[in-house]
Amino acid sequence: MATLTYRDALNQALREEMQRDPAVFLMGEEVGVYQGAYKVSRGLLEEFGPMRVVDTPIAELGFAGIGVGAAMAGLRPVIEFMTWNFAVLALDQIVNSAAKILYESGGQVPVPIVFRGPNGAALQLAAQHSQAWEAWLAHIPGLKVVAPATPADAKGLLKSAIRDDNPVIVLEGELLYNVKGEVPDGEHLVPIGKADVKRPGRDVTVICHSKTVAIALKAAEQLAEQEGVSAEVLDLRSLRPLDEAAIVASVAHTNRAVVVEEGWPHCGIGAQVVDVIQREAFDHLDAPVLRVTQADAPMPYNKHLERLAKPSPERVVAAVRRVLYLD
Amino acid sequence: MATATARSPAAGAQAELERRMLRQMLLIRRFEEKAAEAYALGKIGGFCHLYIGQEAVAVGALAALRDDDYVICSYREHGQALARGVPATAVMAELFGKATGCSRGKGGSMHLFAADKRFLGGHGIVGGHIPLAAGIGFAIKYRGGDEVCICFFGEAAVNIGAFHEALNMASVYKLPVIFCCENNRYGMGTAFERVAAVTDVVEHACSYDMAAELVNGMDVLAVYAATQRAAARARAAGHPTLLEVRTYRYMGHSMSDPLHGVYRTKEEVEEQKKRDPISQLALKLKEEGVLDQAGLDALDAEVRAEVEEAVRFAEASPDPDPAELTKHVLVES
Fold it and tell me: Which pTM value belongs to this model?
């Protein structure tokens, strides 16, 4: 086991997959000469050359479409968006091309492509640069969506995404890139569609993904220390497909749940998770399921307001106390 | 017909090519007429954009390309599919939404695919497939191949961002793509000059340092020759070309739209029909003694029979199995 940052774990995944398969290439803004806006692609241009590490103009729709076309013709593109906020300009290619072509061709034309980049808020970037897009993307049949929280999962899921024959969305995080963690040596693949218990517990399940995993773990620690409450932290890792069995198994065991996400509350990922729980684990529930989300407002610039808008360990602790009827 | 035997081998080959192109244009014309009938009878649903009047573009362009070249189109692509050699039976069955259709009845008129012929759709969002063509060109270059990708789109797509992003990148990366703009003068019911500041599409090529050519789209041989030049440029140096092919659609934008009325006059449509690409080529072949009236009639009868057979096949084919509903959402591993 090596200790790596999330950034370097992604870099390793890209390097290993590009070494393994000559059809894999990376394309996006600043991925080559500049070494990546967040340095995820550091050293790749030098190792693989400009045909496989391709700098693009600022034209998200255009280069996302080039990626889809290349995938239709048999390559395995990895398209980097500097942030998912900019990828909104490319939604036509993601939704109308990548997610549809296999189906509308009656299964003739697969589109093996990865769209990746940081998602959600960083710090004080204001409304247009601080959005979490997973609910939008996970809504679309024809896509897979993963959102790793740790360096090990980042490496394992990105490698699986690149090998997948379908379009896969990989949601990273600007605030995750410096996070360090142990990453298994050698071939390390994390299957798409499998959640992971990041901390076992008995009294309540906190369901989370991406950046909210660290928030949930911190809340679980506080709950254990201050309240004697044992919280299980379930990291979804994949949002489409969703590991419904893991959600149901955990809730059947704890009988209570809180769902945490960075996105807005309306039609969010948490709403989908709650639907699974009420359908498949209704008889196991001892309390209504609560959600912790971003405030239902665009992200403010002011740092105090921003803190109020985001999910936090305190808000998770408060929600857990409510589902345990401690208040 | 007898005079053909007296030709030199080269002239004979040229005559044969022209006869083949005439047959393909006729096939498309008769196919589309039948599609209009079937649409009126409710056998074809949804949107159905006919190609009548524009046959010379698909036929001339695709005759100039190789079987291993790639083709990608907008939603007005019945003609390209037929010219590419997708059987009329499979195309008609797709319009009828049948399991035997070239997209298993799941794509319909706007999403015809035949991967074995490198015919990669049939795309329904105006201009959305132009970057895909650049991507296919990128894949060709990446692998070091000498194929080309041809992309058909209407002049209305020139106003959308995807066109400009794709042309810029195709030029920057030197991709072997032929951007074939079929300028039929109207985006649905809006005349191009009412919504475009630059009405000569070829001029856009200057912005992207790209070779361009203005082509008479009612002359199949002109389209053929221009596409040959563009393909040679792409194969030799990987350079993209923008072709503006001036053509005309006789029918409404789709089957739900009027042929004329508020946006163009009946007289204009009738005037344009005097330049009909099929009549022009038929006349040429008659004048050259390649085909006489009897030969022409026989050719027409042959394609009518082919289209009748396509309709019979489509009618007799089964609907897709209900299990098809959720098949091909993802590649099952």
Answer: 0.97
